[in-house]
Amino acid sequence: MRKFVYLLAFIAFSSSSSFVLTAQTVDEILAKHLEAMGGAEKWSKVKSVVQNTKFTIQGMEIQSKSSILVGKAFRSEIEVMGNKMVQVVEGENGWWIRPQMMGGSGEAEDMPKEMVKVSKNQESVGSLLLTAKMEGSKIDLVNKEKLDGADVFVCQITKKDGDVGTVYLSASTYLILKFAAKVNLGGQAVDTELKFSNYKAVDGLYFPFSMETANPMGGGTMQVDTTSIEINPALEAAIFVKPVKK
After folding, report:
1. Residue 139: pLDDT above 80?
2. Which of 46, 93, 127, 181 maximizes the CB count within 10 A of its CB?
C-alpha cells in the first residue's frame, strides 16, 4: 500500500538501429517537439493549471484533482474508496494528509524529503524534455528504435543530481510516447515506465489525455485518463498552506 501511495503521488512514465546524432540534431528535434506541443509563446503564458483525472486499477476507479502554480507550487487531491489524500509541494518543502488506510493519521504531516523530490516535477507543465532543458539537465539523443512498430528517438535525461530518465519521442509527431526511470518509492528503487497517448489540444496546447503504467499492487496495468484541463484558472494561495492542527 505504501508503494501504491507513492506511485499515485508521483503522478500527475524493440529492436534498435544505432546511429550518431550531433548536437545540432538535438536542438532541431527539441525545436520540433516544442512546436508539436503548441509552441514556446503559448506555453510561456501558462501560469496555472487545474487537471482532473481518473485512475482505473483492477476495476476500481480513483478520482484525482491537481492544482498547479507553474514553477511554484502543486496540490493534488486523490479519492480512494471514500478516503481523500492531499499532497502539496511548494518550493523545497511539502506536506500531505493521508487517511489511516494509507498509513497516515488523517492530519497534515510534513512530507518525507524523498517524496518531495519525486513530486517536485509536478510543479511544471508541458513536457518532460522541455522541463529538463529549462532545469539545465543534460539531454542526449542516443538512438533510434521501434516502439510498437513506430520509429522513435531515444532521449536520455541526466539531471544535476545524477538521476537518469529515458524519453521515447515519436519520429513522426515529435510527441512523447514513453518515459522510463528508476524512482525512489518509499525508500525502494523501482523501475517505472509510463506510456502516453490520446494527445488533445487545450487552448492550442497539447496534453496526453491517456497514460498507462504498471499496476503498483502487482499484475496488469493502471490506466490514467484526464477528464478535464483548465488553463490559467485563479488559484487561492490558501490551498497550498499546511493546516495547523487544532
Report:
1. yes
2. 127
Q: Which candidate, 207, 205, 9, 209, places its Cα nearest to that of 103?
A: 9
Enter the C-alpha cell of residue 21. Answer: 546524432
DSSP assignment letter at 132: H
Rounded Cα–Cα distance for residues 171 and 30 (Å): 11
Which grid coordinates belong to 180? 522510463
- Give the per-residue SS3 of the chain: CHHHHHHHHCCCCCCEECCCCCHHHHHHHHHHHHHHHCCHHHHHCCCEEEEEEEEEECCEEEEEEEEEECCCEEEEEEEECCEEEEEEEECCEEEEECCHHHCCCCCEEECCHHHHHHHHHHHCCCCHHHHHHHCCCEEEEEEEEEECCEEEEEEEEECCCCCEEEEEEECCCCCEEEEEEEEEECCEEEEEEEEEEEEEEECCEEEEEEEEEECCCCCCEEEEEEEEEEECCCCCHHHHCCCCCC
Assess whether pLDDT exceeds 60 at residue 8: no
How distant, in Å, are the alpha carbons of 69, 140, 188, 213 from that of 218? 33, 33, 15, 11
Q: Which amino acid is at 195?
A: K
Grid coordinates standing for 177?
A: 510516447
DSSP 241: S
Res 133: pLDDT: 85
Show Cβ contacts of residue 72 under 8 Å, excluding neighbours closer than 6 positions: 90, 91, 123
Length of the chain: 246
